[in-house]
Amino acid sequence: MASACPRPLFLSFPKSPSPPPAVPAKHHPSTTASLSVSTRARAASSSAPSPSPSPPADGVGPAAPTRGDVYLGRQLAAAAAAGAPARAPEEDAERRRRRKEKRKALAKKAPSGLACCYGCGAPLHTGEAGSPGHVEPATYDLKKRHNQLKTVLCGRCRLLSHGHMVTAVGGHGGYPGGKQFVSAEELREKLSYLRHEKALIVKLVDIVDFNGSFLARIRDFAGANPIVLVITKVDLLPRDTDLNCIGDWVVESVVRKKLNVLSVHLTSSKSLVGITGVISEIQQEKKARDVYILGSANVGKSAFISAMLKTMAYKDPVAAAAQKYKPIQSAVPGTTLGPIQIEAFLGGGKLYDTPGVHLHHRQAAVIHADDLPSLAPQSRLKGRCFPTIMLCSG
Ligand SMILES: Nc1nc2c(ncn2[C@@H]2O[C@H](COP(=O)(O)OP(=O)(O)O)[C@@H](O)[C@H]2O)c(=O)[nH]1
Ligand SMILES: [Mg+2]
User: Fold this and answer.
1) What residue ranges do the domains of the chain occupy?
2) Closest-lying ligand to the alpha carbon of 306?
3) Based on the number of CB atoms within 10 Å of its own CB, is 120 exposed (0-12), middle (13-18) or buried (19 or more)?
4) DSSP summary character for residue 321
5) Phi, then psi, of 132 in degrees rounded to 5
6) Which residue ranges does the record assign to the CP-type G domain (predicted)?
7) Fewest C-beta atoms under 10 Å: which of 63, 79, 223, 353?
8) Is 233 in the pocket of ligand 1 (CB under 6 A)?
9) CA 284 to CA 228: how far, in whole Å?
10) How many whole angstroms from its chain centre is CA 65?
11) CA-closest residue to ligand 1 atom 23
């Protein structure tokens, strides 16, 4: 598949409805089909079984309807014609339940008026010192007076930006060590509104730990929204790696995992490889929707946003301005604690950095935060070939 593509680092899925490994979400063939079926079904239900068609009033014989029957029949027919509730009560209850669930999920989206730290997305406060979002009262008051709360970095983010490892997320999928202010489950909940939004999802996967960081149940977060798959940190692959082969392998893996994506990109936020390709794909597919960068913790979401803004800043003054207040990136997972809205596009739609999803099987869940930076690869990995021992029978 990769060899058929014009660009080596951008693997687009076939946009035909033939039995492709992954069907382009923008065509949504299955969605369209089900929509037309349900429309037809509704039309049929409103027209067809008009309740007890009234027999001719001038019928004769013993089976002739009484005047009362005729009256009742007419009343029912009139009610059906006026669009009286044709749905079963269970169907109504189900609809109501779904609408309530959607309203509840959307309420979890942080209100736009709430001031959050631009580094981690935690709401700003002057309460418990050391907790995410904490700011000195004097600074808070001054910035609030000048309407500049959007430019405030919380105390924890200041430490993180100077290389300190400050943990904040605990529990199942979080990691041990330090004070844990938020649980991994609470962070996951913060993303639950997303499946009800109309958005373009950019899903990030770390090439150094592809299966571990893949975030298997992405549709739980993304709903039916289209997904662009971005593989990060390719600068860490051994020097002679054939990226076309890696691309083929990624596409095969995605097909095996039964995930529908628009395209696959191999990128590095450090060397900026492949970033331009993702930007043009996003610009083409976002269609005035918001763009959400999703992925498990530490795959490089905040670094990817920085790389995007840096690349876009050459042409886009809005992206250039957004560069000043970028989300913090750090080797400690759980840096980003709430969706961070970034004004990055000239033509409408916002870019969102999101809290990483913590997975209990990743090394961060068992290794102390202080030891994590020494385990994170800093330079290219070196390939090793081990001799294989052939066992001959007989
Ligand atoms: N070598 C390399 N490191 C990266 C890249 N992207 C991110 N990182 C590092 O991975 C760690 C996690 O990055 P971050 O953006 O904070 O991850 P997030 O939790 O997904 O937002 C940081 O130490 C980054 O410097 C990349 O493309 N190449
Ligand atoms: Mg982050």
Assistant:
1) 197-375
2) 1
3) buried
4) H
5) -60, 135
6) 184-360
7) 63
8) yes
9) 11
10) 62
11) 331
**Number of helices (H), then strands (E), in the chain:** 12, 9
Indicate the helix (H) or strand (E) that contains 295.
Answer: strand 290-295
Nearest listed ligand to the Cα of residue 357: 1
How many angstroms separate the CA atoms of 282 and 280, rounded? 5
Contacts of 122 (CB under 8 A, 6+ apart): 116, 132, 133, 154, 156, 337, 338
| 176 CA from centroid of ligand 1 (Å) | 20
CATH T-level assignment (fold) for domain 197-375:
Rossmann fold (3.40.50)
Q: Which atom of ligand 1 is nearest to the CA of 268?
A: 27
Distance 331 CA to ligand 1 centre (A): 7
Any atom of ligand 1 within 6 Å of the Cβ of 356? yes
Q: How far is the CA of 180 from the centre of ligand 2 (A)?
A: 17
Which residue has 């990136």 as its token pair? 329
Nearest to 270 by CA among 214, 329, 316, 352: 329
Displacement of CA 120 from its chain's centroid (Å): 17
| Least confident segment among 7-16, 288-297, 371-380 | 7-16
- In tens, the pLDDT along 46-58 reads 333 444 444 444 4
The atom of ligand 1 lying closest to the CA of 271 is 27
Residue 229: band (very low, low, confident or very high) from pLDDT cuts 50, 70, 90: very high
User: Is any atom of ligand 1 closer than 6 Å to the C-beta of 260?
Assistant: no
Q: Candidates 241, 270, 381: which one to mutate for ligand 1, based on the most atoms within 8 Å of Cβ?
A: 270
- Which pLDDT does position 85 carry in this prediction? 57
| Percentage of the chain exceeding pLDDT 90 | 41
